[in-house]
Amino acid sequence: MSPSAVADLALQGQEPAASHSKAIRPSNGHSNSNGTKPTTKRTEFLLDRNLHKSFPLVVGGKGNLLYLADGRTVFDATSGAAVSCLGHGNPRVIEAISNQIKTGVPYLCSSFWSSEIVEELCKELINSTQGKMKRVYLIGSGSEAIEAAIKLARQYFYESDPNSPRVNIIARESSYHGNTIGALGVSGHVARRAPYEPFLMDNVHHVSACYAYRQRKDGESDASFVARKAAELEAKFQELGPETVIGFVCEPVVGAALGCVPSVPGYLRAMRDVCHKHGALFILDEVMSGMGRCGTLHAWQEEDVAPDLQTIGKGLGGGYQPIAAVLISSKIVNALLNGSGQFVHGHTYQAMPVQAAAALEVQKIQREENMLQNVQTQGAYLEMCLKARVGNHPNVGDIRGKGLFWGLEFVKDKATKEPFDPRLAVAQRVHDTAISAQFNMTMYPGTGTADGYAGDHVILAPTYICTKADIDHIVDVVEGVVNQVFQKMAGL
Ligand SMILES: Cc1ncc(COP(=O)(O)O)c(C=O)c1O
């Protein structure tokens, strides 16, 4: 980033960084709906994501901050799991949801009806692709979106030939596409697949990820690296028989599995070309990296590589409603129009007006307030500060990302990139330290980064409303946490 750009950032209106640690709690004191003070005790009736841990109770949120029942205020530097892009408690979104509920139709059966708000959301989404995608399939979660995308991809070929030999999907190692059996089958996330391997589809095949930090050869240019990846995909098509391949699925920027690893420039286009050469579909999973997270509304827009099918989620509804979608290009829509006219799929909770009301308002706010500009500006500042403050740390192997989506990969040895022993649970230590009462900030941990088993990273994914002062706070905490965790580990 140029010095003038840094100066520009400094001129933007900021609140003092000190306000983060002394955040003002809302005056209502977060009473429960029955007026009693919130309890700090857990009931032990919820099957937590980890039964060996006790997750604190959150009683409220505002902007970047979460308020805990034990009195703490935590800075949400990850927007949950890269979800709450507008921050917490946005009054416009809350009002839009409430107004929709008051119409009496938060839910409608999507086999019988549509509604104005759903139509408006779909128009907003299609317009955001400059017409490169033609229809929207609304659904409740990212995993459901991937399930729908792979079924729609298969049906695209089935429409013209019920005996179509196209039954294989190519996806990538070190990827995460969701936890339902189909979505997990597409994923290349070793740890999440392990218990369910016997259930998972055997018609999904994996090629390597596009992971420059660990895969680029000495002196290898972007073009040569991309050519190597395209050759690998081509070889996989040949191995399976090109006429058997439905399509190739990838995340433009790998989220949970690798920690914000962007595609090397030219990669997406090269992979799409291989798919199209063989009449197969190019499918992008933008559930985590899309909807503005990487600085363009759709990650593919940076290099204008529109896919045939695209999944979105997380930032679509910004956490105000569970909503995700598949964006569908004209060739697939036309195959349905010219064929059965019916996607053989569906869920009870799909295209719900209340989901659409939330997502539409989130998208309108983002557009009207030009938040993509803020994602780009604060993202560039975050990159610069992270690299300056922890880039030289001996255990920070790589800092990579885009927009407001940044990953730090930790290594035992910076020169050899040797990962830590997984038993040391380094990423979890970093997360636990960050979220402790000493630092009060979220950092999203991930493991298996190096080879599926070993390797540690954390993700930072601040809200799109974050300011320069917020970034300064995040980087102060990151530096403090990283120094403390590795100093303690050195003393073990
Ligand atoms: C790229 C990607 N695809 C799909 C999913 C699954 O989404 P969900 O958890 O909403 O089912 C995720 C979740 O993290 C994701 O990151």
Automatic annotation (TrEMBL):
Required co-factors: pyridoxal 5'-phosphate
Keywords attached to this entry: Pyridoxal phosphate
Family statement: Belongs to the class-III pyridoxal-phosphate-dependent aminotransferase family.
Keyword Nucleus in record: no
InterPro entries reported in the protein's UniProt record: Aminotrans_3, PyrdxlP-dep_Trfase, PyrdxlP-dep_Trfase_major, PyrdxlP-dep_Trfase_small
Keyword Membrane in annotation: no
Coiled-coil segments on the chain, per record: none
A cellular-component GO term for this protein: cytosol
Name of the protein: Aminotransferase
One GO MF term attached to the UniProt entry: transaminase activity
Disordered as annotated region, ranges: 1-40
A Pfam family per the record: Aminotran_3
PANTHER family given in the database record: AMINOTRANSFERASE, AMINOTRANSFERASE CLASS-III
Biased composition (Polar residues): 28-38
Top-level taxon: Eukaryota
